[in-house]
Amino acid sequence: MSTTSDQTNNVHSTTLNDTTLHEDDLTEQAKNNFTYHSDIFRSLESCRQSILRNEYITPIGRNFFLSELYTLHTICKQVLNYASEHNKFIDQNLPNIGPLVVCGLVRTGTTLL
């Protein structure tokens, strides 16, 4: 059985595009307490799009990077939910502009500050 390059790329792109980032499991309380959550989401989504568009990443590497990015996004949402449920973090004098968030994949040159 022979497949052309276009067919192979279409199969991989369909599989990889199934990895989507969403804020469905971020509570309304966390969204209200941490207004910069949308900035974090946009940064991670931008990184996801860069991974999908990069033609030099192999399908296995792309799958690895996307799964790591998804894990980072999930952990970030869990931290925001936890912090909003435990008011002792919110009652402290936290900066208004949000924390320094470093996102990017290790050794890929995709680090954003």
Topology:
Elements: H1 5-17, H2 28-33, H3 37-53, H4 59-85
Helix pairs in contact: 3-4
Overview of this protein structure:
It is a single chain. This protein has 113 residues and is mainly alpha-helical. The protein is 56% helix and 0% strand. It contains four helices and no strands. The chain has helices spanning 5-17, 28-33, 37-53, 59-85. The radius of gyration is 17 Å and the shape is elongated. The N and C termini lie far apart (46 Å). Residues 1-24 are annotated as: Disordered.
Structural class estimated from helices and strands: mainly alpha
Give unreliable regions as ranges: 1-14
User: What distance separates the N and C termini?
Assistant: 46 Å
Number of domains: 1
Strand content: under 5%
Count of distinct strands: 0
How many alpha or pi helices?
4
Cα-atom radius of gyration: 17 Å
Largest β sheet strand count, sense and barrel closure: none
Mean pLDDT reading: 75
Quick synopsis:
By secondary structure, this protein is mainly α. Helix content is 56%, strand content 0%.
Descriptors for this entry?
113 residues; mainly alpha; elongated
